[in-house]
From TrEMBL:
Species, as recorded: Microbacterium keratanolyticum
This protein's name: Glycogen operon protein GlgX homolog
GO molecular function, one term: amylo-alpha-1,6-glucosidase activity
Domain Glycosyl hydrolase family 13 catalytic: 155-577
Matches recorded under InterPro entries: GH, GH13_cat_dom, GlgX_Isoamylase_N_E_set, Glyco_hydro_13_N, Glyco_hydro_b, Glycogen_debranch_GlgX, Ig-like_fold, Ig_E-set
CDD domains: AmyAc_Glg_debranch (cd11326), E_set_GDE_Isoamylase_N (cd02856)
Keyword Hydrolase part of the UniProt annotation: yes
A Pfam short name: CBM_48
Keywords recorded for this protein, A-Z: Glycosidase, Hydrolase
Family, per entry: Belongs to the glycosyl hydrolase 13 family.
GO biological process, one term: glycogen catabolic process
Amino acid sequence: MCPHAPATIPDDARREALCSLCGSAFDDLGVRVVDGVGTLRVWSSNATGLDLVLFDGADVDWAIAELRFEQVGEGVWEVRSPQLHVGSRYAIRVTGAQGGGNSFRPHTNLIDPYSRGLVRAGGQDDWRSVVVDDSFDWDGAQKPRTPFADTVIYEGHVKGMTKRHPGVPPALHGTYAGLAHPAMIEHFSSLGITAVELLPVHAFVSEPWLQQRGFQNYWGYNTLNFFTPHAAYATTEARRSGPDAVLREFKGMVKLLHEAGIEVILDVVYNHTSEGGPNGPRTSLRGIDNARYYRQLADGEYVDTTACGNTLNTSTDAAARLVLDSLRYWAEDLQVDGFRFDLATALGRDATHTFTASHPLLQAIRTDPLLAETKLIAEPWDVGTGGWQTGNFGQGWHEWNDRYRDRVRNFWLSDIDYARRASTAPVGIGGFATRLAGSSNTFSSERGPLASVNFVTAHDGFTLRDLVSYNVKHNEANGEENRDGAEMNRAFNHGAEGPTQDPVIEATRRKAMRNLMGTLLLSAGVPMITAGDETGRTQQGNNNAYCHDSPLTWLSWEHEEWQECLRAHVATLTRLRRENPALRPARYARLGEETPGASEMSWFDQSGTTMSIEQWTDASHRTLQYLAVEDTGENPNRVLLIVHGVESAIDVTLPTTSDATRYVSLWSSADERPSAVESVHAPGDVIAVPGTSMRLFRVE
C-alpha cells in the first residue's frame, strides 16, 4: 500500500490522490550519476521537445554540448550521457506550443527544478544547474528529536544573527559556519533554546522591482530553487570552491548544532517562486511547464493567493511531488529537523483554489515515512479567499497562532493604552487566560495545546522593544512612503513615540517586555522567540525590514545593563519552563477525567477564591491566579502563576487548597533582574503585586 494512504484517511478518492504522488513517473527526477554516466529526468506534460545544454566548467556562458531528451511516458523526459557527471554545469531548453497558459521560449536556459547546486551565468536571470558531490561524513551525529513539549524555538536570520558577533571570527560572520561556531552555540544553550528556525535558506534572489529601487530581498522569501542552499550564506572560501563546498558547509552547520543538542528548522517558501507574475523572469518552472506548475484561470490569468505574482499549483501531482521531494531531501540528506511552511494555506488549495485540510499534499507530508518525527509548522494563512485557516490544519500539523499573538499584545499593551484614556480596560481576562492555557478554543482536543506555536513577535512586524516603544510603524527607510507593513500592530509606546530619556517610561517599557516574554514562556503550547528580543533589539520602529541587509536588521552584541537583565529573565523563564512540566502539557484537561499528559488547571481571583463566571468577562477584573498541576504519581508538579493586568498595584491572597502547604517564589516580572532568593509564603498569605506584572510560584 502507498505509505501516504493510511487507514485514518477513509475516503477512497483521497486515497487514490495520495497514491498518485507516489507514482513511478515522478521517481528519480533530476540528475543521478551511476558509474560515471549521468541521467537527467525532467517532467513537462505540455512540452514538445527538451534539450540538455552542457557548459564549460570555467566559462559557464560557453556551451560545449547539446543533447536531446527522449520521452519516457507520463510527461517525463530523459537524457543519459557520460558527459553529465559530478561537476557538470548544465541548463534545460524547452519547446512547446503557445496558448493555453503555456510560456515556452526554446532559446532560454532553464534551471533543473531538482538541481542541488547553482552558479550564476552572465545575465541577471541566467543560471546554470550543477551536478554536486553530495558526500559528507556525519561522523555519527544524530538528530536530537526533541519532543514538542520540550521545544523552545528561536527564529532568526543566518546572516543577521552572526554578522556582528565579536566571538565569531570575521571570516565566519554572516555564514552557516558562523551560526555553528562555539560562541553561537553557547548563546543558544545558555538561553535555553532547543531549536533554531532559520529564515529561508533555499537559493533565492531579489525581485527586479526591488533591485531597481536600490534594495535587496534580505529575508529571502523569493525562492529560485527548492533544493539548493543559498550560496551567499556560505563563507568566501566555500563560495570560491563551488556548490559542493557550499553544500558541505551547510551540512557541517547542521552536524555541529545537532552535536550540541540543537535542532534546525527551516522556513520554507513553496507557495510561490521568484519567477513572479506572467511577465517576470523565466528561470525554471515557467519555461518548463507554466500551465501546470502555476495556478491559472482558463484564459491563462494567474491566480495569485500569495501577493507575490504567482502561486505554485499544488493541485497538480508534479508540483505537489516537487514539494514533497524537496522536503525529503532536506530532511534526509541534509538532516534538517523540521519546516515552517510560509503561507501554508496556499499549499492546501485544490483545483478550484479552495483550501482543504485533507489536501493530498498536506496529507502526504504528514504521513511520509521519510518525514517521520519531522516538525511540521504551518503559517496558516495566505492572502486568497478563505485564506485565514488558523486551527484548521489537522492532526500532525502545528501552527503559528496569530490569535495568541493578538490577544497577548492586547492584554499587556493596547488594553493598557485604552485604560489610560478611558479609566478601564475594554475587556476582562477571560480571553487572555484561554491563550495562556493552550488555546483550546482554536485547536481540537485531539491535537491539544502543542498544536499551537505561540509567538508575540516574529521576523515580520515590530521587534519586542519596538512593540512597547512605538504606536505606529516607521517604514520610511523602505522607500515606499511608509505604505508597506502592517497597520494594526496592537502596540503601545507608553507615553512617548520612540526613544526617550524619561526614566518612568523606560522602566514601564522594560516591565512590559518582561510581561510579554513571561507570558510567552509560561503558556501552554510551543514558544517561539524572535532572535534579539531577549536583549531588546530595535529596528527603529520599522515593522517590515525585509529589504535591509544592514545594522538595522543585524543583531547587536553590545548590550546595556538593562539588556543583559532582560536576557537573564529569558534564560530564567526557559529554565523554569524546563523544570516544571505543569507549564507544558501535551493534552487538554477534561473536567472530572484523568487525561494523561494534561495539566489540571484551577483559576482563582485576587482574593484566593475560585473565579466566577462573571469575573471572566468583567472588564474591571483583570487579575487571576492560575494553578497548574501535572500529576505523574509520587511527585506531582504544581505551579501558581499570578497575572495582574492593571497599572495600579493590588493585594493578592494566595489560594488555600488541600494540596498546598507553601508557595515558593520563582520569578517576578516586576524585578529588573531575576532574583535568586526563593521567598516562601503560606496559603492565605497576602502579597503585594505591582501594577501590570506577573509572579510564578512552585506549590509544595
